[in-house]
Amino acid sequence: MIITAINAKGGVGKTTTTMFLATVLANRGKTVTVTDLDRQGSALEWSERAEDGGSPLPFEVELSIPKRVDRQAALVGDDEFMFIDVPPGDENAIEAAIAVSDFIILPTRSAAADLSRVWELRDAVNGTPHAVLLTFARKGTSALDAAREALDEEHMPHFKTEIPLREDMHLAFGYCPGPDMHGYDHVADELIEMMK
After folding, report:
1. Most buried residue, 36, 111, 127, 192, by CB count within 10 Å?
2. Would you kindly state where each structural domain of the chain is located, as residue ranges?
3. Where in this chain does the record put each CobQ/CobB/MinD/ParA nucleotide binding domain (predicted)?
4. Domain range 2-185, CATH class
């Protein structure tokens, strides 16, 4: 299964979502790889820092380019998972990832300006199964309530689990996620169910 987290906007949790979900599934015994299409190599740097710090990730991360991703995707077995980390605003990378994905996660913050990017991407996913994941969620706020309502009104599939705004999430970069998975373990459960 090939899963991509995309959003045209940066800072919404795409790489964090990718790395946490990959960790959850690898810890459950699944074969997982992460393909980093970001020229900055954020996922690869995360992996290297974790390894240098003595807590390597339970999966491989490799840097790639959009024109190679279809070849890499062809090697993924039915019981394996490949996550693709895509940079914001790179249309070639986004299109290449969408073309090979079995499922697309659309991470976004709950602010109206962030949600507007999700509406723009809805047509771009070309019928690929997808769902919005609300990240940096501040429980009990009107913005979060409005985001849920907007997703429901637009009949936009979304995860029931929302990733909370937590300071330690910002500190996760460069470390192997866990033991607290900040809700990503529940997102993984929902993802598996949606992909059936």
Report:
1. 36
2. 2-185
3. 3-169
4. alpha beta
